[in-house]
């Protein structure tokens, strides 16, 4: 299971990469493998400011639909247009081309509540 060391993680299987006050967010390799073939992603929160752990969208696989949760609070500034027409890129490249949203972080203190790569590896066993 691929768990890059330079990212932070949530217990809900989202990853977050911080660059200045912008965070890029996606789902983990573990999450995409558990979901199976991803067929649709719905994110209609662009331009909205959401709190930590608030739902920012949903992801649909052949067998299930899962909510997507904000790792930190902030304004959703961008949604990855690639995943609308090509959602299976999340299965093939969850940490690269399969990113979901970019967020302008409002409270960097919330980053302290996220898991390191080692903590996330322990969570998923």
CATH topology: OB fold (Dihydrolipoamide Acetyltransferase, E2P)
Based on DSSP secondary structure assignment, what is the total number of beta strands?
9
Tally of alpha and pi helices: 4
Q: Helicity, in percent?
A: 10-25%
Query: Can you write the helix and strand succession as a string?
Result: EEEHEEEEEHHEH
What is the first-to-last residue Cα distance? 10 Å
Structural class: alpha+beta
Largest sheet, if any? 6 strands, antiparallel
How big is the Rg? Answer: 13 Å
Domains (count): 1
Low-pLDDT regions = none
CATH architecture: Beta Barrel
Average of the residue pLDDT scores: 96
How would you describe the shape?
globular
- Side by side, the strands of the main sheet go 1-2-3-9-8-5
Percentage of residues in strands: 35-45%
Highest CATH level, the class: Mainly Beta
> CATH H-level name... which superfamily?
RNA polymerase II/Efflux pump adaptor protein, barrel-sandwich hybrid domain
């Amino acid at each position: 299971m691929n768990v890059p060391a330079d990212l932070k993680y949530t217990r809900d299987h989202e990853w977050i990469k911080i660059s200045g006050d912008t965070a890029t967010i996606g789902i983990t390799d573990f999450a995409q493998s558990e979901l199976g073939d991803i067929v649709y992603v719905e994110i209609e929160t662009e331009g909205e400011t959401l709190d930590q752990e608030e739902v920012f969208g949903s992801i649909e696989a052949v067998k299930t639909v899962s909510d997507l949760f904000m790792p930190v609070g902030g304004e959703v500034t961008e949604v990855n247009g690639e995943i609308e027409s090509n959602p299976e890129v999340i299965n093939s490249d969850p940490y690269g081309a399969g990113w979901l949203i970019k967020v302008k972080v409002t409270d960097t203190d919330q980053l302290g509540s996220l898991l390191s790569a080692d903590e996330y590896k322990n969570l998923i066993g």
